[in-house]
């Protein structure tokens, strides 16, 4: 097992001067050294060959004890010094101060086609663990492992998953925060990204008026991820902010396209590269409901509901703009970048929605057609994934019937409402003058056939808790080709079953993980 280690993060950025691992406030530093704990009986449940290869592992490495020890934190790769990153964040709209990698430990960076950081989630305490244990349980680890890969293959920018392992230790969790704590199997996900730098990584230094560390991180970000920009240059910092805006818009438009609800869009969970990061109580829309949030902690205000995600993206960018202002001291370019968020989102969202219904050349009137589509989608419960997939080959609205949960008595009325829209839609497609086969092909390339429905993860978790890991593998395989017909796995192209509607883990999730 030979990797091309290149630890730029630890060699180029200010370190915590205290080498000991105890919970504390860390000043003037981007990271603290932190060693993963040894686990009782590590066991590899799944490894991702594609990501492994990208990092420079050979296929035979994945079967070795050395690999298992590495991805469970039981052995440190030679000449590396694992570390936890310092960051802060706004949680549910309030500044929360220092947060940091409380249960994530970065092992190292490798240089292959790009530079990648390998990070373990659930490998023990760090100086940022606050009152928690630094561990993760199997259910949340299965969810993170599968979802990051599902998102990648859907074409959504995201961190990736390298491996899923059991630690062999038991972890105490009060899943519903109702005083019923129980022991659950501990697990560790090894995840990968070009960078785990977050909005909150910058915010923490601005909040402390620590311009030196903020500048160091800003320059580091430019050097490694935006090399066309200039270090120590205010205009470049403003340009960097614009690029973060652009990347964030793109990511959120993708989320809306596939029906993904992140659930905890705190600024510490926003990647500076515009990647989806930190898969906690996320969820996928079954029925199209813009007001839906999977996160029980957010059930009162539903701040992070599906339909609100674009606005929250902007809110989070406002917080980041304030941070950048600490160094640029010029509000104008930052304000312009923020203003561009709205226009970019409107344009890209309309293009995206039009693409979902097969319109390749959107015009102004299409916004009205899309609006009435959304009104209809909300009229009765309508499965979002099924609807858009069926629409590609539908010649009348009745062809989409499988997507609807229509009570018998409302069927006639609902279909009549839909018929009006469908006729306008057909007229619009005629104007486009594109062969039907091409429309179908293009629609199927943006409307996934298979997504990681909430109940699917839960089935995989239930089985895994009984030591049956086959469903993890089945879903992993299924979701590698989410846009393709997979007749042998057609059973996953179906509405959520009734039993899943109000079941914990299938329709609502807590942050406890
Ligand atoms: P999250 O809501 O998962 O983004 O986490 C918010 C903050 O809490 C981050 O600083 C996490 O690292 C930290 N955190 C979450 N769970 C744990 C845990 N079990 N042990 C230590 N820190 C945690
Ligand atoms: Mg987080």
Q: How would you describe this protein?
A:
The protein has 15 helices and eleven strands. Helix 4 (138-154) packs across helix 14 (454-465), helix 5 (199-207) packs antiparallel against helix 6 and helix 5 crosses helix 8 (309-328). With 513 residues, it is an alpha+beta fold. 40% of the residues lie in helices and 13% in strands. It has helices at 8-12, 49-55, 65-71, 138-154, 199-207, 211-225, 234-258, 309-328, 331-356, 366-379, 384-391, 411-432, 436-444, 454-465, 470-478; strands at residues 31-33, 43-47, 83-85, 88-91, 94-98, 104-111, 115-121, 160-173, 182-193, 260-261, 283-284. The site of magnesium ion has 3 residues, from loops.
Main sheet makeup: 5 strands, antiparallel
Give the amount of beta strand, in percent.
5-15%
Overall geometry comes to globular
pLDDT under 50 segments (min length 5)? none
Number of strands: 11
Q: Calculate the terminal CA-CA distance, rounded to whole Å.
A: 32 Å
**From the structure provided, what is the oligomeric state, counting identical versus distinct chains?**
single chain
The total of helices stands at: 15
| Overall average residue pLDDT | 96
Ligands: adenosine monophosphate, magnesium ion
Total of domains: 3
Rg to the nearest angstrom? 23 Å
What percent of the residues sit in helical stretches (DSSP H or I)? 25-40%
Can you list the strand order of the major beta sheet?
2-8-9-7-6
Secondary-structure-based class equals: alpha+beta
Order of helices and strands: HEEHHEEEEEHEEHHHEEHHHHHHHH
């Amino acid at each position: 097992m030979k990797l091309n280690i290149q630890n730029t993060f630890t060699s180029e950025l200010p370190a915590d001067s205290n080498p000991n691992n105890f919970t504390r406030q860390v000043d003037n530093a981007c990271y603290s050294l932190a060693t993963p704990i040894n686990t009782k009986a590590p066991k590899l449940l799944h490894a991702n060959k594609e990501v492994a290869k990208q990092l420079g592992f050979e296929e035979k490495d994945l079967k070795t004890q050395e690999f298992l020890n590495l991805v469970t934190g039981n052995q440190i790769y030679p000449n590396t010094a694992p570390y936890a990153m310092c960051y802060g964040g706004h949680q549910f709209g309030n500044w929360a101060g220092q947060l940091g990698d409380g249960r994530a430990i970065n092992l190292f960076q490798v240089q292959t086609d790009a530079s990648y950081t390998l990070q373990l989630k659930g490998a023990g305490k760090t100086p940022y663990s606050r009152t928690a244990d630094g561990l993760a349980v199997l259910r949340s680890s299965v969810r993170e492992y599968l979802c990051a890969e599902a998102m990648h293959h859907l074409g959504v920018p995201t961190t990736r998953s390298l491996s899923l392992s059991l630690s062999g230790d038991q972890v105490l969790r009060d899943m519903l925060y109702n005083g019923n704590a129980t022991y659950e199997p501990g697990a560790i996900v090894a995840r990968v990204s070009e960078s785990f730098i977050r909005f909150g990584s910058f915010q923490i230094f601005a909040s402390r008026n620590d311009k030196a560390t903020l500048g160091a991180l800003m320059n580091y970000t430019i050097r490694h991820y935006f090399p066309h920009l200039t270090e120590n240059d205010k205009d470049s910092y403003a340009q960097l902010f614009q690029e973060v805006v652009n990347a964030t818009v793109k990511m959120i438009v993708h989320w809306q396209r596939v029906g993904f609800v992140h659930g905890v869009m705190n600024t510490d969970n926003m990647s500076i590269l515009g990647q989806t990061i930190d898969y906690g109580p996320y969820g996928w829309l079954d029925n199209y409901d813009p007001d839906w949030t999977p996160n029980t902690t957010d059930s009162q205000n539903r701040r992070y509901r599906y339909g609100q995600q674009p606005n929250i993206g902007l809110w989070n960018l406002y917080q980041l703009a304030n941070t950048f202002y600490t160094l640029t001291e010029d509000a104008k370019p930052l304000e312009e970048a923020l203003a561009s968020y709205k226009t970019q989102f409107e344009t890209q969202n309309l293009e995206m929605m039009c693409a979902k219904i097969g319109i390749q050349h959107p015009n102004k009137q299409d916004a009205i057609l899309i609006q009435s589509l959304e009104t209809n989608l909300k009229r009765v419960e309508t499965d979002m994934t099924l609807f858009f997939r069926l629409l590609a080959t539908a010649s009348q609205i009745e062809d989409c019937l499988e997507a609807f949960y229509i009570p018998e008595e409302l069927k006639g009325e609902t279909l009549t409402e839909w018929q009006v829209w469908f006729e306008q839609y057909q007229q619009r497609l005629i104007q486009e003058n594109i062969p039907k086969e091409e429309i179908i092909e293009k629609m199927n390339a943006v409307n996934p056939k298979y997504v990681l429905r909430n109940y699917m993860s839960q089935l995989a978790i239930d089985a895994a808790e009984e030591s049956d890991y086959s469903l993890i593998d089945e879903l992993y395989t299924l979701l590698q080709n989410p846009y393709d017909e997979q007749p042998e796995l057609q059973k996953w192209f179906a509405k959520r079953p009734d039993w899943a509607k109000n079941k914990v883990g299938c329709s609502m999730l807590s942050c406890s993980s």
